[in-house]
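Example 3.2
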Amino acid sequence: MKKGQLQARDREALGRYGLDSSKLSGAGEMAFEPGEFLVRQGEILTCLYIVTMGTAKVCINAHNGKNLIICYYVSSGILGDAELMQSDRSAFTTVAAVSPLRLIAIPLAGNEAYCRGNLAFMNSIAASLSEKLISSAAARAASALYTSEERLCAYILMAEHNGVFSDVLTEVAQSVGMSYRHVFRVINTLRRDGVIEKNASGYKILDRELLRKRASD
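Structure, written as tokens:
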């Protein structure tokens, strides 16, 4: 993880959320490499984050050690919005970078009053929470209504980076509600049908359109 000063692009991004960088105390740019954690569930959240580039994996950790992937942020979005609206600042989720990730970090200490008093920013928070609620409802519906192959294909499309899917299959199985053996069987079917192929980085998508069809679009 690397820290830096706000750049012109960051000030422009803050402006899109109604925030004036000159009124923020201690805000800066942070960069994470794939696999690095921004925050872990249960830790006290000290910053709000605005994603400006890359993909972050957000998951809830169950008591039995399993994970549930609930959302992906690609080049935009707010992290820490739910915690901002609660008195308990313990992080609800674990967040890790999937690709090179760049964010704006806004310390809550010294900035909370300004953020809460900023109507444009609070409207952005409301929109962000609304999107997450809709995504959560859609994920529950997909789990109940779609076949295991459809769920896995949709997950591959969501998680791929630059045309390559490289998630750990045991974690994927937990996330889409399948056994590892079943995930492996579906992966092999997709390879046999020319949808994906194995390479050194993971699985390269060869036929994105067919993959979309198998994910029921």
